[in-house]
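Posting this for the archive.
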Amino acid sequence: MAIGRIMITDKKMKDLQETNYLQENGWHVRTYTMSGRQTYLQGILFALPFLLLAGGMYRTFLLERAVLLDHTGIILLAAAAVSLPVHEALHGLGWKWGGRLNRGQISMIFCHGMPMCTCRAVLIVRAYLTGTLLPFAVLGSGSFIYLVICPGTVSLLTALVNLTLSGADLAIAYKVLRSGADMVADSPDEAGFVALFRGEE
């Protein structure tokens, strides 16, 4: 569809909602975004089953051969410092593959000192979900494999970081599926997305 190549600018998402082009061509727009608190709480909620699985597996099957280290705070910060940019880069890679996008349609920005990847194109739902869930698929499964092969403080904290980071992505993917959207646009300034519906609401 032609709308799959519409570019979203850096303006507020309100501008997208007011775009005459979308309305004139029979599209309706609904925004699904979360505040910082909602993102944190829903992210933890969606990540919790996987966190419990990793912790339970570690404690039940892997603790006896685990390599335990001190300075867990430093290890946790190091795991987050490595995982966060990789996590965001995987979002971009997934959107690029799923939507067959050009380089300019994916951008890495810094928000409050943190890297964030945004997609500037309207995508079909499958392509949007590919980018949204790729970090969970790669880093989440990779963390479980790493935890089994090399159990210990480093692998456990790395798994907890990667699974927690993916919690908000799981929440967004759930909302996308529940929305029944025909097309999806990434929100450029908040956690969430804009759902586009063809025809009458």
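The chain has one domain: 2-198. Strands lie at 27-34, 106-111, 114-119, 123-124, 183-186, 191-198.
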